[in-house]
Write a structure and sequence with these properties.
- Helix 3 packs antiparallel against helix 4, helix 3 packs antiparallel against helix 6 and helix 4 packs antiparallel against helix 5.
- The protein is elongated.
- Helix content is 60%, strand content 6%.
- The protein has 2 domains: 56 residues, OB fold (Dihydrolipoamide Acetyltransferase, E2P), CATH 2.40.50.100; 181 residues.
- It contains 6 helices and 6 strands.
- The chain starts with 12 loop residues before the first helix and ends with a strand.
- It has 314 residues and is α+β, with helices and mostly antiparallel strands.
- The strands form 2 sheets. Strands 4-3-1-6 form a 4-stranded antiparallel sheet. A two-stranded antiparallel sheet has the order 2-5.
Length: 314
């Protein structure tokens, strides 16, 4: 194994010092301070960037409020169903914006329309009955106040006969209106039963029963029409007996009692007519309730109904 020789240059320290003194002052460079200025430059750049970002954010968010615990407040208006039935359509969706009066849901109005028709027919019948009782009251009044002379008594009697004939005609027409309303309802029930029968929802016996009921109701209409014709014929006959009835009418003794009874009948008939008006108004109101509309402007929230669903009042 061979070891390479190592040469060591040895310099005299005195000569080295003398050489340093002989160098000119400009030839000796000043010592460098490496790495001391860079942290300050980085810090200045960071301050400038941060200040610029802050000013940009302030400029973009000027006039705006911000918070990390905000809450939204609004009015909730629950929608309640006033009448029961099957929903035909629900033309809105959750979170949809609606205006006041917009349709939210439609309940099947068929039954409620039938009730309106029935209430309207009952009102006409009650009004006709009230007119008949008022005419009878006039009859009692006319027939019980005679006594001035035989001629006046005869005239009063014949006028009362005519009024009685008018009352009979009015009563027969009222019965005809009621029979027609019953026949219309029977037609509606039969049509509904036929639809249910086609889907085997009801037995054939029930359909046969409703068919018989319909025939009976239409027979009642024919009978009521015949009664109207007979009453009109009686009215014509009463008109021909006007001359014969002169002078043969006798005064009734208890005038006050008869008048009181007639007035009571008229008041009762008037009250029934008023009740029929209220029933009709309520039926029409219930029919209007089948359309569920928005009570005010807003948005739909928590929609929980679908078409075909059976809903109950309240």
């Amino acid at each position: 194994m061979t070891t390479a020789p190592v040469t060591v240059n040895r310099t005299d320290p005195v000569e080295e010092a003398r050489g340093r003194r002989e160098l000119p002052a400009a030839a000796v460079p000043p010592p460098r301070r490496k790495g001391r200025a860079r942290p300050y430059a980085y810090l200045a750049a960071a301050v400038v960037v941060g200040l610029g970002g802050y000013l940009a954010i302030r400029l973009l968010t000027r006039g705006r409020e911000s918070t990390d615990d905000a809450q939204i407040g609004t009015d909730m208006v629950p929608i309640a169903v006033r009448v029961g039935g099957v929903l035909l359509e629900v033309p809105v969706t959750d979170n949809q914006a609606v205006k006041k009066g917009d349709l939210l849901a439609q309940i099947d109005p068929s039954d409620y329309r039938n009730r309106v028709d029935l209430a309207r027919a009952e009102l006409r019948a009650a009004q006709a009955q009230a007119a008949a009782t008022l005419a009878r009251m006039r009859i009692v009044d006319a027939s019980s106040k005679g006594g001035l002379s035989t001629a006046r008594a005869a005239l009063s009697g014949t006028t009362s006969s005519m009024a009685g004939a008018d009352a009979q005609v009015a009563g027969a027409q009222a019965m005809l209106l009621k029979a027609e309303a019953d026949a219309e309802r029977a037609d509606t029930d039969l049509r509904r039963a036929q639809e249910l029968r086609r889907s085997n929802a009801i037995p054939q016996a029930q359909l046969d029963t409703l068919t018989s009921v319909r025939a009976s109701m239409h027979a009642a209409v024919d009978y009521a029409r015949a009664q109207v014709a007979a009453a009109e014929e009686a009215k014509n006959s009463a008109r021909t007996r006007v001359a014969e009835a002169a002078g043969r009418v006798e005064q009734s003794a208890p005038v006050d009692a008869q008048m009181a009874a007639a007035r009571a009948d008229a008041d009762l008939a008037g009250a029934r007519a008023a009740a029929a008006e209220v029933s009709l108004a309520q039926a029409e109101l219930n029919l209007s309730y089948t359309k569920i509309v928005a009570p005010r402007d807003g948005h739909i929230s928590k929609l929980a109904v679908r078409p075909g669903q059976l809903v109950q009042a309240a």
